[in-house]
Design brief:
The complex is a heterodimer of chains A (728) and B (526). By secondary structure, chain A is mostly helical. In chain A, the strands form two sheets. A two-stranded antiparallel sheet of chain A has the order 1-2. A two-stranded antiparallel sheet of chain A has the order 3-4. Chain B is mainly alpha-helical and 526 residues long. Chain B has 24 helices and two strands. In chain B, helix 16 runs antiparallel to helix 22. Chain B is globular, with a radius of gyration of 22 Å. The two termini of chain B are 29 Å apart. The chains are: A mainly alpha (728), B mainly alpha (526). Chains A and B meet through helix 1, helix 2, strand 1, strand 2 and helix 6 of A and helix 7, helix 8, helix 14, helix 16 and helix 17 of B.
Chain lengths: 728, 526
């Protein structure tokens, strides 16, 4: 090794404890979950089958109803231990992350710190290590994952308190954090891929957490399968990289990326395959359909996995492999264009959803699109910045909606109402009177996502919009040709799409707030009196997230603003990430003229005007007082119906892909080819032969097996004799 | 450890002992069976299964030394023994192993005790005969892995087939006669062709001396047949091994054999016996006929069949209503990966193929054991009959989930390491075929998750399922080693990879591929 890395011998050498801590949490909680439910059966499993119907574990089974059923089961046997271990490991991990961050801030660090644990797959020229990599980008991700993760774990103590699967829930949640940390800390693409699939596994397990509902199990399966379509792309990208560069370590890829012809077909293809992976994990067109269904999972899961962390992995990966994307303009423009289209498309669906979580789900898809616009145009810092602020306000929105759903559930529970949907906004209304804390923090988050200054989302969203505009005025992207169109034109189109999405975002978010918290309450007379604010263990994390959503923008204040108003240091995040993505950003931005300050101020004004207009439009046009619960509502018609049915994309996929594949597999491959052709041809043909031989053999010796043995011997002797004669 | 093994001359007797012990066990069971003639069925079952378990545990314990005692970087056969058998015909008792064989031997010796435990309460009829068949088969299977004389190899090859035929035919389900005959015909068809080919090479190489040559090393180093003949000979071996793998379209015996076989039979069939086919390619078909194996047309055919098998097996798995059939078809898909890796002729592909072999043995063996456990409780294997049983059998649900994710190649489990190495290795030489094969990561998720969902998730609607007992201690105990294997090979496969490296490279070199040497070895050599 050359001279020691500045982080060697510091707290950074304990970096492997970051994923290890939640892994320990998973093992303990998993063991507790099993210990609480498992009851070994009798030595002979078939001995008393069918006799003993009244005893055995049947009672346990029928008592422990899934979430939302009638009886209040007693708390989990190990609830106390689980509540300590589950969030406890997160507190420790966050503490360690802060310690490492503190060391890093003081160190002059130009190369990532690599921590090799052991040799994983040593096969010839493929020497894969289980190794972790710490640099400024992974540090940002680690802080988000452990920090937000810790808050959501704490929230879950309250939210999941009555669930019989309490220990299992925390086990899965810990396992998720383990995988997510592996994803962002991997020093090579394969370790990242371990985390990548690991978070997919946890997502699957948590979406289907209440697995005795078929719809939930279906949603989990769908999420995993759609993600695997993306993983296919990720894998092929790895194969191509290894075949061409002979390495999968990020450091070596960066060093050897120069072997690719800039803008060449090879590097573009690699990036496009990788993108397929990113689009699957980060729910972009055409692979976004799993995310809205993923709302079947408990709400803290939606907040942590399906908003703040896992779904941003695709954005992270583009930033992580920016050395490749920055020399593949076509791939980069694809990232940005798909992101922009997704941002707008998902926002249109968000306009007409009634399930509060579905609104937020489509909102997440839309905001992820924004992040892709950022990293697509080579504004890697802007993309990561929006990733971070989005983690703050979207986690807050989900947890806030969780708090509302929790209250609705309890209220319905109290009056034994099983028919009404606790997540349908048509059953809510006026919730601000019952849950003032939730109401305030939700508004903070809404203003943040809508892009109202000085809330966090304003700065990050504006940064992306500004960068798109700047890139259109000169960059390697603008001068590239994209499907016969000039890159600059594509960039302008992206900018307009993104602005339109911003308008719709402000509208659907205000609509959600109006229908949920304002106007008259529609929960029903009986249940209304039971509506109440959540306990402090839930509202506490909400308040922390609200503070972050309000002031998160200070992470990366733009010069345009700090010049006018001295709010604080400029572009902190940009400087921080410079060693990781600075080179790639410069490569893409090459040739761009600095946007004039006056232009930037105009752009800023446009962004604010659009956000305000959206809120005002929704506020003045929507009438929460005229809403009626679902059974009484008139069915929508025309375009509204199309939006309400999500553009029928699921149905289209079902008819065009899923059903034909199944029909072919069953009808053609199995029934026709396997059973029909091969078996008839080979098996029945040879069976006829066997019968014939058997008949011949039965003249000599009885019994089929004897026949074969004899035939074998006779045949062998004949053949040997033939050869012997030929040879000698 | 090494000193101790050397002190007892471990390498000189171990392979022969591993072959002889099961045969001796057959004799013991025969004597016990006679002695227990008057006893009741339960007592017979108890004696037979305990004897078998004890024998297999001893066998496994003895085999462990192979892990340390051998020099895996050597290109010489390890623990080799050569004794004349029928000198006039040029037949010797010549045995020896390399890293690839050892891995499969250890897989066999470790799975057999688990197979006995898995049959513990399931086999109530003729228990002595059943366990005798398992023992006999073990000698045959281990013999195939160690034989270095083609005549000897053929004897072992046939020795393992007949007990399996009987296990399916005697202890199988309602269509056992059909399934066992189908199994026998398919395998016999290939075996006979292979026999003819073996005799041809033996006599041809023997030439003027008049004494045929069955010695593997002599045959593998001379290979003095015209190219045309080599193609035909390769073809004959191909049919024998391809049936066993099974490669598409010679696979249709497999689902029937599995569905009808008792649990123990299915486990051995899937976990070990299918490996005979792929091992046959590695040990015999490729090194004996390198010119044919590396013929571009042959390679294209092999890779194409492998990829068809991978995709076809997965698609057909997806629509199976029967638990066992689903797993059987998934085997067609998995073994296709092995074939793809073999014919990639790269170090990663070959070592990946060995890993997939091993992983398939562990994961599919575990799946068949799990199917057996459910079958003993419910006497059905149809998915429609299950659902929601994670509520009543949480330990079973955990085990099934782990094994299913291993089978679909989730990183962190063994399945990923093998699949990944095969694909990354194959992509270097056959990128298009590999890309098509990679799509199976999607289909595998579909059929395995659907399998999991229909068994342990969904509403617990049926009364029969609501009263199911969870796994007992025996069942937990036999699953634990498999689960440990799944994670060990997934997280730290380096010990296996280091042991199979030299052996894999030797085959690649033989067929004209480009072996990639580990950097550590490079420094040692320089």
């Amino acid at each position: 090794m050359q001279e020691a890395h500045p982080l060697a011998e510091t707290a950074a050498r304990f970096i492997w404890w970051l994923p290890t801590l939640p892994l320990i949490g998973f093992l303990i909680n998993g063991a507790l979950a099993l210990a609480a439910t498992a009851k070994p059966g009798p030595a002979d499993p078939s001995a008393d089958h069918g006799h003993d119907q009244s005893t055995g574990p049947s009672h346990a089974a029928s008592d422990s109803h899934a979430h939302g059923d009638d009886a209040h089961p007693p708390r989990h046997r190990f609830a106390r231990a689980v509540s300590v271990v589950g969030p406890g490991v997160m507190v420790l991990a966050f503490g360690l992350a802060l310690a490492i961050f503190a060391v890093m801030r003081g160190a002059e660090m130009h190369a990532p710190y690599i921590n090799t644990l052991f040799s994983w797959m040593p096969v010839g020229d493929l020497q894969l290590d289980a190794a972790l990599q710490l640099d400024q980008l992974s540090m940002v991700m680690v802080l988000v994952i452990t920090g937000i993760g810790m808050l959501i774990h704490l929230f879950s103590i309250g939210y999941m308190q009555d669930d019989p699967g309490y220990a299992r829930f925390f086990a899965y949640l810990n396992l998720f954090v383990f995988s997510m940390l592996l994803l962002v800390l991997g020093a090579n693409m394969v370790v990242t891929f371990v985390g990548w699939e690991g978070v997919g596994l946890c997502s699957y397990l948590l979406i289907g957490f209440w697995f005795t509902e078929k719809a939930n199990a279906d949603a989990g399966k769908k999420a995993f399968v759609v993600n695997r379509i993306g993983d296919f792309g990720f894998m092929v990208a790895m194969f191509m990289l290894f075949a061409n560069l002979g390495t999968l370590n990020y450091v070596d890829i960066a060093a050897r990326a120069g072997q690719f012809a800039p803008g060449g077909a090879l590097v573009t293809t690699i990036c496009l395959f990788m993108l397929l992976g990113c689009f699957g994990k980060s729910a972009q067109i055409p692979l976004y359909t799993w995310l809205p269904d993923a709302m079947a999972g408990p709400t803290p899961v939606s907040a942590l996995i399906h908003a703040a962390t896992m779904v941003t992995a695709g954005v992270y990966l583009v930033a992580r492999t920016s050395m490749l994307f920055s020399i593949a303009p076509v791939a980069s423009l694809t990232v940005a264009l798909v992101g922009a289209v997704t941002a707008l498309f998902a926002a249109t669906i968000g306009l007409k959803q009634w399930d509060i979580k579905k609104v937020l789900a489509y909102s997440t898809v839309s905001q992820l699109g924004y992040m892709f616009v950022g990293v697509g145009v080579g504004a890697y810092t802007a993309g990561v910045f929006h990733l971070v602020t989005h983690a703050f306000f979207k986690a807050l929105l989900f947890l806030g909606s969780g708090s509302v759903i929790f209250a609705m559930h309890r209220a319905y529970h109290a009056i034994h109402n099983h028919s009404d949907d606790a997540q349908d906004m048509r059953n809510m209304g006026g919730m601000k009177r019952y849950m003032p804390v939730t109401w305030v923090v939700m508004w903070v988050a809404t203003l943040a996502i809508a892009g109202i200054p000085p809330f966090a989302g304003f700065f990050s969203k504006d940064e992306i919009l500004g960068q798109v505009f700047a890139r259109a005025h000169g960059s390697t992207l603008a001068s590239a040709t994209y499907l016969g169109v000039s890159g600059a034109t594509v960039l302008y189109a992206i900018w307009i799409l993104a602005l339109a999405a911003a308008l719709l975002t402000a509208i659907y978010m205000t609509r959600m707030m109006l229908y949920t918290f304002h106007g008259p309450n529609r929960t029903g007379d009986g249940a209304q009196s039971h509506l109440a604010e959540a306990p402090w263990i839930m509202t506490g994390p909400l308040v922390v997230l609200a503070i972050l959503s309000a002031f998160g923008g200070w992470l990366n204040l733009p010069e345009t603003v700090t010049e006018m108003i001295p709010l604080g240091p400029t572009a902190v995040l940009e400087h921080w990430l410079e060693p990781v993505v600075g080179g790639a950003t410069e490569r893409i931005a090459a040739g761009s003229a600095h946007t004039a300050a006056s232009t930037e101020q105009v752009l800023l004004g446009v962004a604010i005007a659009i956000a305000v207009a959206g809120i005002a439009l929704a506020w003045t046009r929507l009438r929460p007082s005229s809403l009626v619960p679902k059974p009484l509502a008139e069915p929508s018609t025309g375009f509204q119906k199309v939006l309400e049915n999500k553009w029928y994309v699921d149905e289209i996929y079902d008819v065009s892909v899923v059903k034909p594949v199944y029909a072919t597999s069953r009808g053609v491959l199995w029934k026709f080819f396997d059973v029909g052709v091969i078996d008839t041809l080979f098996a029945n043909g040879s069976a006829a032969l066997a019968r014939f031989l058997g008949w011949v053999g039965s003249q000599v010796q009885s019994g089929q097996l004897g026949t074969y043995a004899w035939l074998l011997v006779i045949g062998a002797v004949l053949v040997i004799r033939a050869f012997a004669q030929a040879g000698g | 450890m090494n000193g101790l093994l050397a002190a007892v001359h471990y390498n000189t007797w171990i392979l022969t002992t591993l072959l002889a012990l099961p045969l001796a066990g057959v004799a013991v069971l025969a004597l016990q069976s006679r002695a227990a003639a008057g006893a009741d069925a339960a007592a017979k079952m108890e004696i037979a299964r305990r004897t078998a378990l004890a024998l297999f545990v001893v066998e496994a314990a003895l085999s462990v030394g192979l892990w340390w005692s051998l020099d895996y970087s050597s290109i010489e056969w390890q623990a080799a023994v050569t004794l004349p058998w029928i000198p006039a015909w040029g037949i010797h008792y010549k045995i020896g192993v390399d890293g690839i064989a050892v891995v499969l031997i250890l897989l066999t010796t470790f799975l057999m005790p688990l197979t006995v435990l898995g049959s513990w309460t399931g086999i109530r009829e003729k228990p002595f005969a059943f366990y005798a068949m398992l023992l006999l088969m073990t000698t045959g299977m281990l013999g195939v892995f160690v034989a270095l004389d083609l005549a000897l190899f053929y004897v072992f090859w046939e020795l393992m087939l007949i007990p399996m035929y009987l296990i399916i035919g005697m202890w199988g389900g309602s269509r056992r006669v059909y399934a066992s005959i189908k199994f026998f015909l398919f395998t016999m068809l290939g075996s006979l062709l292979m026999l003819v080919a073996i005799l041809y090479v033996a006599f041809k190489t023997g030439g003027a001396s008049g004494v045929p040559v069955f010695d593997y090393d002599l045959l593998a180093s001379s290979a003095a047949y015209p190219a045309q003949a080599a193609l035909w000979l390769f073809g004959a071996f191909f049919v024998a091994f391809a049936v066993k793998v099974p490669m598409w379209p010679l696979h249709t015996w497999l689902p029937d054999a599995h569905v009808e076989a008792p649990t123990g039979g299915s486990v051995v069939l899937a976990s070990i016996m299918l490996k005979m086919g792929t091992f046959g390619f590695i040990r015999f078909a490729l090194p004996l006929f390198p010119s044919a194996a590396s013929d571009p047309a042959v390679r294209t055919v092999m890779v194409t069949l492998a990829v068809i098998g991978i995709v076809y097996g997965a698609l057909v798995s997806m629509v199976q209503p029967d638990f066992k059939k689903l797993v059987a078809y998934s085997s067609v898909s998995h073994l296709g990966f092995v074939m793809l890796g073999l014919f990639a002729f790269t170090t990663q592909g070959m070592q990946g193929a060995v890993m997939v072999n091993l992983n398939h043995g562990i994961s599919t063996g575990a799946l068949f054991l799990l199917i057996g456990m459910l079958y003993e409780r419910r006497h059905t294997r149809l998915f429609d009959e299950f659902g929601g049983i994670a509520r009543v059998m949480p330990m079973y649900a955990v085990a099934l989930s782990i094994v299913a994710f291993s089978s679909m190649g989730l990183p962190g489990t063994n399945g990923f390491v093998g699949e990944f190495l095969v694909l990354i290795g194959a992509f270097r030489t056959v990128p298009v075929a590999t890309t098509i094969a990679t799509t199976v990561v999607i289909i595998a998720a579909v059929y395995l998750l659907w399998m999991v969902q229909r068994v342990i998730y969904n509403p617990l609607a049926r009364r029969e399922n609501a009263v199911l007992h969870d796994l007992n201690w025996r069942e937990v105990g036999l699953l634990v080693p498999l689960v440990i294997g799944i994670f060990w090979l997934g997280i730290y496969p380096a010990p296996i990879l280091n042991r199979t490296h030299a052996a894999a490279n030797r085959v690649i070199e033989r067929v004209g591929g480009v072996p990639e040497v580990n950097p550590t070895e490079l420094t040692v050599r320089q």
